[in-house]
Design a protein that fits this description.
This protein is α+β, with helices and mostly antiparallel strands. The protein has one domain: (Glycosyl)asparaginase (Glutamine Phosphoribosylpyrophosphate, subunit 1, domain 1, 4-Layer Sandwich). The strands form two sheets. A nine-stranded mixed beta sheet has the order 1-13-12-2-6-7-3-4-5. A hairpin with a 2-residue loop joins strand 12 and strand 13. The longest helix has 17 residues. It is globular and about 50 Å long. The termini are far apart. The N terminus is likely disordered.
């Protein structure tokens, strides 16, 4: 019994040391920034997002800086990328499926555990806003296809053609061979996932995408699915994913990461374990990318990915920072 109690006390001590504010495997562009992240206690508010979506995190920060709620910041930030015609992985201008149709998936979660989502929605440029309407205005949590589109129109959203000339041209070029092969870190399978904590310490999250370029009609990835592309628990934190959605779905990655943080893991440790679960379950992991970002209730954050090339945008204390993620597959 004495030996068992000693081991228990030692484990708790180690756990306490593990949750010190730091990013173990995320590295900033400069060593100075890296050192600062490892030593400065996080301050609310804060917003983090997958990839180098600086305009999106800036828009979210502007809401938070004025004292706005985290859910409002999430919607504002995600809408920026949905409206960016140059971003062929999100919203208007997204790459179509094999039949030339742009279909969008998105979900949003608030501090109270509310969840709303749309999948396979066409002709509506801002699925993140429609997802919020699903959460707040219906008894449901997920609407699909024509039903989602009809609901959006009833809520005042306008139908519009989302297939830009640039995306159409790329699709017609692809049809010459019709070869489907996702390319790591190339914009045919990426997403914006965003997490934010407001001045009150409440966390919300959102995730929006046009999915894999030239996917089969009807394909749905992880982005709009609770627990996979996004999960929020206001008592613990949140996590979101990007990359090969099928692999995130099979491991319920974002839920896993939040639960690991509940058990005492840092956001960084939790993201690393999330990636490790994917790698261990799929021997073909060298052929696809998955990246995670997590944010806990204390404002500590972390990120990790299968391959290098993934990074996150952060806005905190009025400063924008791009953080490169370390990866499971190390460079030779």
């Amino acid at each position: 019994m004495k030996r068992r109690n000693f081991i228990k006390r030692a484990s708790l001590t180690g756990l306490g040391l593990a949750v010190a504010p730091s990013i173990i495997s995320c590295e900033t562009e400069t060593e100075k920034d890296k050192k600062a992240i490892a030593t400065v206690t996080p301050v609310f508010p804060i917003v983090v997002a997958t990839w180098n979506f600086k305009n999106a995190t800036k828009a979210a920060w502007e809401v938070l800086e004025k004292g706005g709620a985290s859910i409002d910041a999430i919607e504002a930030g995600c809408r920026v990328e949905e409206a960016d015609l140059k971003n062929t992985t999100v919203g208007n201008g997204g790459s179509p499926d094999r039949d030339g149709n742009v279909t969008l998936d998105a979900c949003i979660m608030n501090k109270d555990g509310g969840y709303g989502a749309v999948v396979c929605m066409e002709n509506i440029a801002h699925p993140i806003s429609v997802a919020r309407k699903v959460m707040e205005e219906t008894p449901h949590v997920l609407l699909a296809g024509k039903g989602a589109e009809q609901f959006a129109v009833e809520q005042g959203f306008k139908r519009e053609n989302l297939l830009t000339e640039a995306s159409k041209k790329a699709w017609l070029k692809w049809k010459e061979k019709s070869e489907y092969k996702p390319i790591i870190n190339i914009e045919n399978h990426d997403t914006i996932g965003m997490l934010a904590i407001d001045k009150n310490g409440d966390i919300s999250g959102g995730c929006t995408t046009s999915g894999m370029a030239y996917k089969m009609a009807g394909r749905v990835g992880d982005s709009a699915i609770i627990g996979s592309g996004l999960f929020i628990d206001n008592s613990v934190g949140g996590a979101t994913a990007t990359g090969m959605g099928e692999e995130v779905l099979k491991t319920v990655g974002s839920f896993l990461i939040v639960e690991l943080m509940r058990q005492g893991r840092t956001p960084q440790e939790a993201c690393e374990e999330g990636v490790r679960r994917i790698v261990e379950s799929n021997p073909n992991y060298t052929n696809f990318q998955v990246g995670y970002v997590a944010l806990n209730k204390q404002g500590e954050y972390g990120c990790y990915c299968v391959h290098g090339g993934f990074g996150i945008s952060k806005y905190q204390e009025g400063k924008q920072t791009y953080i490169k993620s370390n990866s499971y597959i190390k460079k030779a």
